Amino acid sequence: MLETALSVSLRNLIERKSKRDNRTFTAYQLAKCLAVDRSLILRILSGEVPHPRIDTILKILDFFVQDGFKLSLDELVNGRVESEWVSEQIPEVVQLSTINVYSMNKRYAQCQRRTSVALPLNAAALQAFVNEESIAPFCPPGTLFIIDKEKSVEAGHLLAIDFLDKEEIIFYKCLTLTPFSLISMDDQVRFCVEDRNISVRVLGVVVRIHLPYQAPSVEE
Questions:
Q1: Helix, strand or coil for residue 155?
Q2: Strands (DSSP E) along 133-216, which ranges?
Q3: Considering 28, 125, 140, 203, which has the largest number of Cβ atoms within 10 A of its Cβ?
């Protein structure tokens, strides 16, 4: 078995769901819930398919979120499913909210369009950005990043950052608050803001990522 970050996450989630529900939850049951072939789930768990299609990853993410697990895309694909991210409570009630969508390029500061998304009732000031270019590791062009401008920033949050000397909004994960340090979504770039003596403005915390629809195809 060749373990991958995703296979570790998925195995962890299946075990936690079994423990929470006090009954065994299997890869076969997950495949039925996702309407995918059981062999695909088994190949993901074995590491044979280390990089499934985005639509498959989103199906897995959506299933466990709807089942009450507090889980982000980053935590799922990077093998960071920890106990504190799992909720044994009833999932939050959601409502359909219409929000403004902006380009990540600051030259186009006006609202590009409006969109409706299902979000928790307690979500505060919402805004969305759409990217024109791919963002590693799993965000192709057209991905919608929904931010809450009033949510308190905590370590581990994905943030929309305005570097005042750059033309585009950039998304970084918060490593620490004191000092304020950031890491890129692909974990390749990390730095302390104070050390670089740069001016940044946190626009908000990313509360949802909507990947553009892609027609399903056979996994390779």
A1: coil
A2: 144-148, 158-163, 169-176, 181-184, 190-192, 200-210
A3: 203
What local confidence, expressed as pLDDT, does residue 188 receive? 84
97: CB partners within 8 A, 6+ apart: 116, 117, 118, 119, 123, 126
Same domain, 81 and 119: no
Q: What is the pLDDT of residue 40?
A: 93
Pairing of strands 158-163, 200-210: antiparallel
Please name the helix (run of DSSP H) or strand (run of DSSP E) that holds residue 18, with its range, or none. Answer: helix 5-21
Whether residue 66 is predicted with pLDDT greater than 80 in this model: the reply is: no
The pLDDT value recorded for residue 85 is 40
Residue 219 clears pLDDT 80, i.e. is over it? no
Written as one letter, the residue type at 22 is: N
Contact between 179 and 193 under an 8 Å Cβ cutoff? The reply is yes
Distance (Å, whole) CA 13 – CA 86: 9
Does residue 99 share a domain with residue 80?
no
Strands 169-176 and 158-163, sheet pairing:
antiparallel
